[in-house]
Amino acid sequence: MKTLLILAFGLVALVSCEKGNLFDNNKKDKACPVVAVESIPENVNTSFQTKYPGATVDKWFNKDNKGYCALFILNSKKTLSQFNNDGEFIKEETNVEQEGNHQDSEDNECECETEEGD
Questions:
Q1: pTM above 0.90, yes or no
Q2: Can you tell me the distance from the alpha carbon of 117 to that of 57, in angstroms, rounded to the nearest whole number?
Q3: CA distance 84 to 62
Q4: Long-range contacts of residues 73-76, Cβ cutoff 8 Å, at least 24 apart
Q5: What is the mean pLDDT of residues 1-19?
Q6: Cα 111 to Cα 68: distance, rounded to the nearest angstrom
Q7: Segment (H or E) for 46
Q8: 3-state secondary structure of 23
Q9: What is the secondary structure of 6-21 as a DSSP string?
Q10: Cα–Cα 20 to 30 A to 24, which of 55, 69, 101, 110?
Q11: Rounded to an integer, what distance in angstroms lies between the CA atom of residue 92 and that of residue 74?
């Protein structure tokens, strides 16, 4: 009887672990849409040009309608810079050479693609 209880507990624990892994593996990345420079609010574009004089954005991304990300080259390094809708600077990541997406801290937010083909 004791052995049966131990086996049952072990099976429940195993199934619980498997469910957790299944949920983690099924989480899909949501890419932020690329937007044309003409669609970027003037205050965001002005803030970018003030912070990075002379830099040219390769791609702009709409970040969940909460702001914008700019992908560009800064000092020979691929850089991703984020601004809110009011044009306030939020954060910068340099040398974003990872394959795939810009990783965000919140699960429900979209991710800004950084691969050349995206």
A1: no
A2: 16
A3: 10
A4: none
A5: 47
A6: 11
A7: helix 42-51
A8: helix
A9: HHHHHHHHHHHHHHHH
A10: 69
A11: 11
